[in-house]
Structure to design on (224 residues):
């Protein structure tokens, strides 16, 4: 229930359930049990989502310390490391964020298929790290990797595909490369029209992105 409330941004209810679960596990399990590590991790995720990054890091590191006693590399440990990297990014601790996110990417390689949404998400985190540092060339590289992998691994209607495309167009605009952004959208629009139903929402989003870009350059532009 805690995760349900967290997904709906009901943070007080989520924390209440997470803490109840954590306290129950502490009563019944050894202090370094992996289930306790997961409870601590969940509390860290909540604090990260509410912007309390110092407290989130404290919980993530406690969780990681327990996990490292029991396991080598696995997805649970990798997820905690990724969250640590993301929290450091939010705190503008870019060197530490890069260290953790690079480690996570390497950890995922033997644990997951070569093409996987979790690896795509990691690319997005690394791209966001470069964006925060205004390194838009590297940002684009990672955002495009994320988009290409998500296209191969997610359902065509998944909202992350719209988000990924929006991120790429947004960075082209930050680079003042509006023509490249429009060419990218036109290319994706052609692919979408060939592969998706004409009423698909991704086609509508791409069309609106094109209209917005050309309207910024020419108020008399009409999309054909």
């Amino acid at each position: 229930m805690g995760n349900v409330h967290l997904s709906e941004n009901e943070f007080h209810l989520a924390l209440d359930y997470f803490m109840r679960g954590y306290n129950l596990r502490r009563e019944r399990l050894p202090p370094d049990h992996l289930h306790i590590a997961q409870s601590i991790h969940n509390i860290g995720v909540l604090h990260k989502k509410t912007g309390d990054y110092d407290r989130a890091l404290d919980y993530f590191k406690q969780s990681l310390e327990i996990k490292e006693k029991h396991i080598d590399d696995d997805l649970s440990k990798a997820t905690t490391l990724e969250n640590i990297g993301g929290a450091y990014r939010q705190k503008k601790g870019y060197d530490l964020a890069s260290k953790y996110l690079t480690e996570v990417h390497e950890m995922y390689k033997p644990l997951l298929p070569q093409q996987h949404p979790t690896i795509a998400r990691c690319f997005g985190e690394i791209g966001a790290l470069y964006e925060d540092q205004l390194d838009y060339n590297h940002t684009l590289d990672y955002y495009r990797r994320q988009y290409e992998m998500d296209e191969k691994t997610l359902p065509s209607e998944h909202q992350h595909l719209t988000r990924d495309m929006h991120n790429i167009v947004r960075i082209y605009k930050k680079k003042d490369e509006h023509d490249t952004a429009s060419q990218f959208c036109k290319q994706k629009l052609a692919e979408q029209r060939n592969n998706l139903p004409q009423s698909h929402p991704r086609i509508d989003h791409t069309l609106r992105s094109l209209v917005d870009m050309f309207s910024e350059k020419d108020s008399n532009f009409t999309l054909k």
The chain is about 80% helix and 0% strand. Residues 1-109 form a domain with the Serine Threonine Protein Phosphatase 5, Tetratricopeptide repeat fold (CATH 1.25.40.10).
